[in-house]
Automatic annotation (TrEMBL):
Listed transmembrane segments: 6-28, 40-64, 70-90
Localisation per UniProt entry: Cell membrane
Protein name: Sensor-like histidine kinase SenX3
BP GO terms, sorted: cellular response to phosphate starvation
Annotated GO CC locations: plasma membrane
SUPFAM superfamilies attached to this UniProt entry: ATPase domain of HSP90 chaperone/DNA topoisomerase II/histidine kinase, Homodimeric domain of signal transducing histidine kinase
Ranges for domain Histidine kinase: 155-370
Classification via PANTHER family: PHOSPHATE REGULON SENSOR PROTEIN PHOR
InterPro entries found in the cross-reference section: BphY/WalK/GraS-like (IPR050351), HATPase_C_sf (IPR036890), HATPase_dom (IPR003594), His_kinase_dom (IPR005467), HisK_dim/P_dom (IPR003661), HisK_dim/P_sf (IPR036097), Sig_transdc_His_kin-like_C (IPR004358)
Any one GO molecular-function label of the UniProt entry: phosphorelay sensor kinase activity
SMART domains assigned: HATPase_c, HisKA
Species the sequence originates in: Actinomadura montaniterrae
Record keywords: Coiled coil, Kinase, Membrane, Phosphoprotein, Transferase, Transmembrane, Transmembrane helix, Two-component regulatory system
Length: 370
């Protein structure tokens, strides 16, 4: 074919294709919310139409003869029909895969369908599964939080009210002059002071717990020697131990520095040590050890409490949980270990307990900075 004719063919073929493409794009825009099967059909039809219109224009300009035209048209139309059929088939497969996905989403618990899906839909389904798991996890956490909030409310209404009622009774008795002899008055004053101190501690513990539950515990971390932490925990509990006749000792191997909020972690350890002393009979021993190994710092508090009942072991860290012996008036509030756990977990650490030797051993594990 001479070069000018070739140019002409290219020009008219492109022109025809452009017109058909413009119409097809308009149609696709109108149909953009419809099924992919229909849109794929439009694409296949536009391809055939662009080719056929190019051939018609060229034969109209008499660049090819009638015979050639019918041969080419027959080939193009048959190929076009096959292409359209394949497109529609593909569209229907996509629609079916989509339906499988929609049904999986509608189910109570979304799981990626086992049926093979096109790559994009398979990716979407994996992402959906991950999103569903995150949602379920958030729901679980919210429910646990709600349960512990309810527990806390029940706790407040009981444990805070009982001592308040006692305080009121004593104050009224003093006010009305029901108790008049000097010894009883002094005893009442003493008990009022002790109760008020205990209530103040409880309110402080409650405040700490609510900050932990709200995720509002802001740690101001600094480098502290493990040995200093343990020494402080021992020193802080010496008076209490002496009053009860319990021996207390601290032992730190490799006192590497740890990166923690010394105030908060000190509070957690104090709760463990006070518990240990409280549950150890006089003449018993409480031992605090610290060591660094395997990329973590470990602090353990071992006592001679005689062991915690197996059934209680998993519950001692729950808010308001108290063992049988502690459920007496004036006993603990059941907040100490929940606070200790909250503080340790805020440090990305773990806390656990096991019965060992003459008593039990609480263990705090903290990751070391890399
Ligand atoms: N060292 C321990 N030895 C034996 N039992 C313990 C020990 N530490 C805790 N427990 C048990 O776990 C329960 C919960 O402890 P937790 O420190 O949370 O509360 P509490 O000591 O009763 O009250 P609070 O610490 O708020 O004053 C205790 O009542 C006790 O039954
Ligand atoms: Mg306690």
């Amino acid at each position: 074919m001479p070069f000018p004719d070739l140019l002409l063919v290219v020009f008219y073929a492109a022109l025809a294709a452009l017109v058909v493409t413009a119409v097809a794009l308009g149609a696709l825009r109108l149909l953009r919310a419809r099924s992919v099967a229909i849109q794929l059909g439009v694409v296949a039809a536009a391809t055939v139409l662009a080719t056929v219109s190019g051939i018609l224009v060229i034969s109209f300009l008499m660049l090819i003869n009638d015979h050639d035209r019918s041969v080419v048209l027959t080939v193009v139309v048959s190929a076009g029909l096959v292409a359209t059929a394949v497109s529609v088939l593909l569209g229907r497969r996509l629609v079916a895969a989509n339906r499988v996905l929609v049904e999986a989403v509608r189910a109570d618990r979304f799981r990626a369908p086992a049926a093979p899906l096109p790559a994009e839909l398979a990716e979407l389904s994996r992402e959906l599964e991950a999103a569903y798991d995150r949602l379920a996890e958030a729901h679980r956490r919210e429910q646990a939080l709600e349960a512990s909030r309810r527990e806390l409310v029940a706790w407040v209404s009981h444990d805070l009210r009982t001592p308040l009622a006692g305080l009121r009774a004593m104050a009224e008795a003093l006010e009305d002059g029901v108790v008049a002899d000097g010894g009883t008055v002094r005893r009442y004053h003493g008990r009022i002071r002790v109760e008020v101190e205990r209530l103040a501690e409880m309110v402080d513990d409650l405040f700490e717990l609510s900050r932990i539950h709200a995720g509002a515990l802001r740690l101001s971390r600094q480098r502290v020697g493990l040995a200093d932490l343990v020494a402080e925990a021992v020193a802080g509990a010496e008076a209490l131990a002496r009053a009860k006749g319990v021996r207390i000792s601290g032992d730190v191997r490799a006192g590497l520095p740890v990166h923690v909020d010394a105030g908060e972690l000190g509070r957690a350890l104090r709760n463990l040590v006070v518990n240990a002393i409280r549950h150890t009979p006089s003449d018993g021993a409480v031992e605090i050890t610290g060591e660094v190994s395997g990329g973590e710092a470990r602090v353990t508090v071992a006592d001679a409490c005689g062991g915690i009942p197996e059934a209680d072991l998993p519950r001692v860290f729950d808010v308001a949980f108290r063992g049988e012996a502690a459920r007496t008036p004036g006993g603990g509030a059941g907040l100490g270990l929940a606070i200790a756990r909250g503080i340790v977990e805020a440090h990305a650490g773990e806390i656990g307990v096991a019965n060992a030797g003459p008593g039990c051993r609480f263990e705090v594990r903290l990751p070391l900075p890399a």
